[in-house]
């Protein structure tokens, strides 16, 4: 009987330690983990056509001070149906979310995407400036 008592107590102690150490981690409205990271920037930018091949004629220029992304595309590119892809700093997210094709054809009114830091306190609006080759 004492043997079963020791085993039961040991199991209860282990279960208490495992359950007691677990904390609820904060998540945002998208279900993403909120961290302590304040970094907030775009590291790389890609622009794909409907065939999922790049439409850039050269590497995009990302200015983290002016908060702009200058991208030159091949002449004749259909900018009404492109897929922008951002590489962001760790734990960042993008607003608005990109869920499909995007229309970047209004060259006089560049589209803006906001990069939000991991701690959700820093927000930087990046303007995508598109030019034809």
CATH topology of the domain at 42-132: Immunoglobulin-like
Count of strand segments: 7
Name of the CATH class of the domain at 42-132: Mainly Beta
Average pLDDT, to the nearest integer? 90
* Low-pLDDT residue intervals, each spanning 5 or more residues: none
Q: What's the arrangement of strands in the largest beta sheet?
A: 2-3-7-6-5
Q: How much is the radius of gyration in Å?
A: 24 Å
Question: How much of the residues is beta strand, in percent?
Answer: 25-35%
Percent helix, as a range, is: 10-25%
Gross morphology is: elongated
User: SSE order, as H and E?
Assistant: HEEEEEEE
User: So how many helices?
Assistant: 1
Main sheet: strands, sense, barrel: 5 strands, mixed
Reported CATH architecture of the domain at 42-132: Sandwich
Q: Class by helix and strand content?
A: alpha+beta
Q: What gap, in angstroms, lies between the N and C termini?
A: 84 Å
